[in-house]
Design brief:
heterotrimer, A alpha/beta, B mainly alpha, C mainly alpha, A: FAD/NAD(P)-binding domain, Cholesterol Oxidase, domain 2, seven-stranded mixed beta sheet, six-stranded antiparallel beta sheet, B: 15 helices, globular
């Protein structure tokens, strides 16, 4: 083996050169610092700066509120902290202990919530389909699941807005749900996308190539376009894949927001008059602090949000904050994410191109010809070697020489995933592992009980998975695979603090305001009553932008009044980050 | 070489009888610079095609900078300018001339933007090959200038109806004053000039073909063919600039080869698009992301330039 | 059940044409001469440091006892055998697992029917050893490879041949998932393994330009396959779903696709 390494002009790429905080190779900001004292009362505290928290932080800061975003993880410097390596990206995930059980326990950790500013949007694959109009009235249409307290029309302007802000790349005409188009052009195909398109077109199934994904297909401002390296879910060092860390947080800081990173919020503090007055949090050294605030927004993900509210139980809220309905932590959902792996005689090299780059929603809606309600989507995925080996362990039961042999054929495999809608069930829960009432006991390093997650599939879910899995396998065979295997798994946790029309049927109202505490809000995936078979990221961000408009419309009344106004706010286009409306292609709105 | 070492008129004589006369006329008009109308039609056609090309290429680039609309708009206007110039001498001298120069300058500005676009990719110009291949197509803005350049030429030509005494009078007048490229164009005496243009276009186009086919790993052997033809055409064009003999011999042969190669390439590119996953069921996507459908015609255009240079008379200087 | 008296000769993959053992290779796999490490100058500094450290480091054993190491090393050598690799080019798996457990780097969750990872490993190792003692009256690492594989296969099938009491302390299927996941996580994180399977490795700032049809980048290597058979007596060159064959549970560390 030669000692001489290939070298770019001017030698190997070195350390970042400037003493600035890098958010992608071109976007640099002054190293973030503290702005608010603990004795100061800020307007809003946001717990968790992820998909929803990042958007809320940016909107509220732009509207002139004083706001702090807390995150349990670090404020990433993309050049210094992130690596282009599968094993080295473990730190992006929420790796603190959680207990998982039930008949079909969910694998948590790396597949789900993130840790650090940007949250899950740092390691999402960035598929950004919208929900369909039918998703908002599942119960009315199919008699299962639940209806949302809002309609597609209420969220539609925010979809359009966020698709511009992110921006989303995809076809100019996207036929499913309410047809629409995307502001950035679709991406070129990689080997896996080609397989999906080949399989689908041979079976006469419509398929969308090159999007919708929150990955730049052309540069915008100080974000370069995709370099097709396939490390999307290891965090995009390129800055082509959107995360709120690089899309919304810089603008928030510009407008006076503070990010308090490495700060784990332990409970929401309540005043005797039934209003929240701040949060307690632990710094990195384990010292407890208190930050005063006029209102609190919890955006901690479908597991940490219920956990925080349950851990905030206090006199008057003995079963957890905002839990008078008893539904906090219930109706947790995950989407079925079976991965179907097909071997081809020709090389695929599935590690190239973004994992997310082609999909079909042809089976999204309820079909009376099938024996289950609701449906599924089919999407490309691109497991890197470690994830692929683990999938093969399950899919083919491999170990030893068999594992080594199959792995040597890594480049011959394509992988396509099911994304199926599992309905909300009351027995799928997040509880505290506090040792009470037969619950397990486990605590984190601050002594707080961790979350305990229970997950069971029900009959409709099992039928959907069976049908969907077989459909994806059919596509794989049609594309010319010589061997097709599959692994069962789940993705995208949502629910747990669902929004509802009435106080007894959910935890929050349609703007995320808790039914019990007038200045406590929940805004993240946990408010979703149902989940569709669309990846939830875009919907979470759109809901957050809508709630921000609601909060801004009501101004200081949020901090003092308990009056609950459920009028839809106007959709403000003046609060978008700079550059939102100057780029993009003409598309169907 | 004996066959090729003939004047264009002698070549025309070798054609089958029915074609002989039209060929004679075409050559005669080219040699005297009296083909403004035909050139205007050519401008119209090429700018329509390059407008479509830049339209979809910039769609791929998501019009992420509003400046990306300028070539699309300008090539539309240039198409109209070409049409009006076919009908009116005055339009050719004014409208077409201004628009053509503007478009040409836009192409050069675009070249600057594309250089910058590559610099802004991760690794920038430190990894020239990867970033040229995956960045904005480097030479495309210059090649986009091709139709603009033809427009500039057209605007200085004489019209077909000027052929004969009027053209002779102009030529006699031109011979008296100092040499000037405008006069040379108007009298069809700009072979050397056109050889330089042919060479420049061939360099840009050749490099573009090379890296595009390199991106595709030269999967088909036929992808090498333009890479082989381009240097020959380049050598012929440079040689044609220096020597009339080469302009009369190698240049037409190399040019013909490029034209044929471009036509064959077009066939393969269309076939490539149809053979993509989804084929004709995903026509828009596959035209966008398959082999560039107009690119081989651009290569053929280099050959066309060479062929026109061959037909022309040389500058006196 | 028969046991061989002495430490067994290494199991070697064989040439299908001749049936003879294939000599160990510097780099097994179908991409001769491909080296991701040679591309390190095209990587960003943070990634380069991480990957080069991974190659250079020798991890101390801090969590397992020497006895546990002996047993687990034998198990790991069967989970991902490396006899086809030249001794200097074998990839440390045990050290990575030890390091993870010592530093308590967990995947973010624990199954309700599983003890913490550290305890699970201790139980598992003890149970493997106990199976060997019960059935063969010797230590697990002293068994013939075929016997080791038999015992391991019984765990793969979630039907332990002995030591039922130890195995009852955890969910065997999940333990199997944990063990194999950890082994794969260590092996396929190594650049030598990337070279073996033809994975391009780190890709920033330089990404890819040949996305379709499995075309190789200019710096990648075209596939050139050769035939090899797993050692004739091995049990691990088999494709059979593990445990109950029910795939309704996901496994430890099976993450990171979407």
């Amino acid at each position: 083996m030669s000692e001489e390494n290939e070298t770019p002009l001017l030698g190997a790429f070195g350390e970042p050169s400037k003493p600035l905080h890098y958010l992608g190779p071109m976007q640099q900001i002054q190293p973030p610092r503290r702005r608010f004292k603990e004795t100061e009362t800020v307007d809003y505290v946001i717990v968790g700066v992820g998909s929803a928290g990042g958007v809320l932080l940016q909107r509220l800061a732009r509207a002139g509120f004083s706001v702090i975003g807390f995150d349990a993880g670090p404020f990433w410097d993309t050049e210094r902290d992130w690596v282009s390596d599968e094993a080295g990206s473990h730190k992006l995930y929420w790796n603190d202990l959680r207990i998982t059980g039930g008949q079909h326990p969910l694998a948590l950790g790396e597949n789900n919530s993130g840790r650090g500013v940007g949250g899950g949007s740092v390691h999402w694959a960035a598929f950004t389909p919208r929900f369909h109009p039918s998703d908002f009235e599942v119960y009315t249409r199919d008699g299962v699941g639940a209806d949302w307290p809002l309609d597609y029309q209420d969220i539609e302007p925010y979809y359009e807005l966020l698709e511009q802000e992110i921006p989303v790349a995809g076809p100019a005409y996207y036929p499913w749900g309410k047809p629409h188009g995307y502001p950035y052009a679709p991406h070129p195909m990689g080997g896996v996308g080609d397989v999906l398109i080949k399989g689908c077109t041979r079976l006469g199934i419509g398929v969308s190539a090159g999007g919708p994904v929150a990955i730049l297909s052309a540069s915008r401002g100080n974000r370069p376009h995709c370099i097709y390296r396939g490390f999307c879910i290891q965090a995009c060092k390129v800055g082509a894949k959107a995360s709120t860390l690089i899309t919304h947080v810089p603008d928030a800081l510009e407008h006076g927001a503070e990010i308090r990173d490495n700060s784990m919020v332990s409970r929401v503090s309540m005043r005797p008059d039934g209003r929240a007055d701040g949060v307690f949090y632990f710094d990195q050294q384990g010292k407890e602090h208190f930050q005063r605030a006029r209102a609190v927004i919890v955006s901690g993900y479908a597991i940490e949000t219920p956990r925080l509210l349950l851990n905030s139980a206090c006199p008057g809220h003995e079963h957890g904050l905002a839990n008078s309905s008893g539904l906090l932590g219930k109706f947790l959902m995950a989407q079925a994410g079976n991965v179907i792996l097909g071997r081809f005689d020709d090389l695929i090299r599935l590690y190239k191109a973004p994992p997310a780059h082609a999909l079909t929603e042809e089976f999204y809606e309820t079909d009376p010809k099938r024996d289950f309600a609701r449906g599924f989507a089919i999407q490309t995925v691109g497991p890197l070697p470690i994830a692929f080996a683990r999938q093969m362990m399950t899919a083919k039961g491999l170990w030893g020489w068999g594992m080594r042999r199959t792995m040597m054929d890594y480049n011959h495999y394509a992988s396509i995933a099911l994304l199926g809608e599992i309905l909300p069930w009351e027995d799928n829960t997040v509880t505290l592992a506090d040792g009470h009432e037969g619950r397990p006991e486990a605590r984190d390093r601050f002594g707080l009980p961790v979350a305990s997650v229970t997950f069971n599939l029900h009959d409709n879910d099992k039928k959907m998975i069976e049908f969907g899995k077989n459909k994806v396998m059919e596509v794989m065979w049609a594309a010319g695979a010589t061997e097709v295997v599959q692994e069962s798994r789940y993705a995208h946790l949502v629910g747990g603090a669902r929004m509802s029309r009435t106080p007894d049927s959910g935890v929050v109202d349609k703007f995320g305001r808790s039914w019990d505490v007038p200045n406590l809000f929940v805004m993240d995936g946990s408010v979703m009553p149902t989940q569709g078979s669309a990846n939830p990221g875009l919907t979470i961000q759109a809901l957050a932008a809508r709630t921000a408009d609601y909060l801004i419309s009501h101004g200081d009344a949020i901090f003092t009044s308990s009056r609950r106004d459920l009028e839809e706010p106007p959709c403000r286009k003046t609060l978008s980050p700079p550059g939102t409306f100057t780029a993009g292609v003409p598309h169907l709105r | 070489m004996a066959l090729a070492d003939k004047t264009p008129h002698e070549v025309a004589l070798a054609l089958p009888a029915p074609l002989r006369k039209p060929a004679e006329i075409v050559i005669d008009h080219i040699r005297h610079g009296t083909f403004q109308r035909s050139m205007s039609v050519l401008v119209m056609g090429t700018s329509l095609v390059s407008g479509l090309e830049v339209g979809y290429e910039h769609y791929r680039g998501s019009y992420s900078n509003p400046v990306m609309y300028t070539p699309v708009v300008l090539s539309g206007v240039l198409t109209i300018a070409g049409a009006t110039s076919f009908m009116s001498r005055k339009m050719a001298k004014t409208f077409l001339r201004y628009i053509a120069w503007t478009t040409l300058i836009d192409g050069i500005i675009g070249f600057g933007f594309h250089i910058r676009g590559i610099a802004r990719k991760p690794g920038g110009w430190r990894m020239p090959i990867v970033n040229v291949v995956m960045g904005p197509p480097l030479f495309a803005p210059l090649l986009f200038g091709t139709s603009a350049y033809l427009g500039v030429i057209a605007s200085y030509l004489q019209r077909e109806e000027d052929h004969g005494p009027r053209a002779q009078r102009l030529e006699a007048e031109a011979a008296t004053g100092p040499a000037d490229f405008r006069k040379e164009i108007a009298t069809g005496q700009f072979q050397k000039h056109f050889c330089v243009v042919t060479a420049a276009a061939t360099v840009c186009c050749g490099l573009e073909v090379w890296y595009s086919h390199y991106k595709d790993n030269f999967k088909y052997r036929v992808q090498w063919s333009p890479i082989l033809v381009a240097p020959v055409l380049l050598a012929a064009a440079i040689g044609g600039f220096k020597s009339k003999r080469i302009a009369d011999t190698l240049l037409p042969i190399a040019s013909a080869a490029a034209i044929v190669n471009g036509l064959v390439g077009s066939y393969y590119h269309v076939r490539g698009i149809l053979n993509r996953p989804g084929g004709r069921k995903k026509p828009v996507y596959n035209v966008l992301y398959g082999p560039p459908i107009f690119a081989p015609m651009l290569f053929a255009a280099c050959g066309l330039f060479g062929m026109m240079a061959y037909f022309m008379r040389r500058e006196k200087r | 059940m028969a046991t061989k008296p002495d430490a067994p000769p290494p199991q070697m993959p064989t040439d299908p044409a001749t049936g003879r053992p294939l000599p160990p290779r510097e780099q097994p796999g179908y991409y001769p001469g491909f080296s991701t490490l040679e591309q390190q100058n095209y990587w960003d500094a943070a990634t380069r440091k991480l990957v080069l450290d991974r190659v250079a480091r020798t991890l101390p054993i801090r969590f397992f006892t020497p006895e546990e190491v002996r047993t687990l090393a034998a198990v790991v050598n069967r989970i991902l055998p490396q006899e086809d690799r030249a001794p200097a080019r074998r990839i440390d798996i045990l050290g990575v697992i030890d390091n993870r457990l010592f530093e308590n780097r967990i995947d973010g969750y624990r199954y309700i029917d599983m003890p913490p990872d550290q305890e699970a490993y201790r139980i598992g190792i003890r149970a493997f050893e106990q199976m060997a003692r019960t059935l063969f009256q010797r230590s697990f690492h002293e068994l013939a490879i075929i016997d080791q594989e038999r015992l391991i296969e019984s765990i793969h099938d979630a039907k332990p041949m002995a030591a039922q009491e130890d195995w009852s302390k955890l969910n065997i299927e999940r333990f199997w998932g944990l063990l194999v996941s950890d082994c794969c996580g260590a092996y396929y994180a190594h650049p030598w393994a990337w070279d073996e399977i033809g994975f391009g490795g780190p890709a920033y700032p330089r990404g890819y330009m040949r996305l379709e049809d499995g075309e190789a980048e200019p710096w990648e290597v075209e596939e050139s396959r050769y035939g090899w058979n797993a050692p004739s007596d091995t049990l691990s060159d088999d494709e059979r779903l593990h445990g109950s064959g029910q795939q309704h549970q996901t496994h430890h560390g099976t993450g990171g696709t979407h």
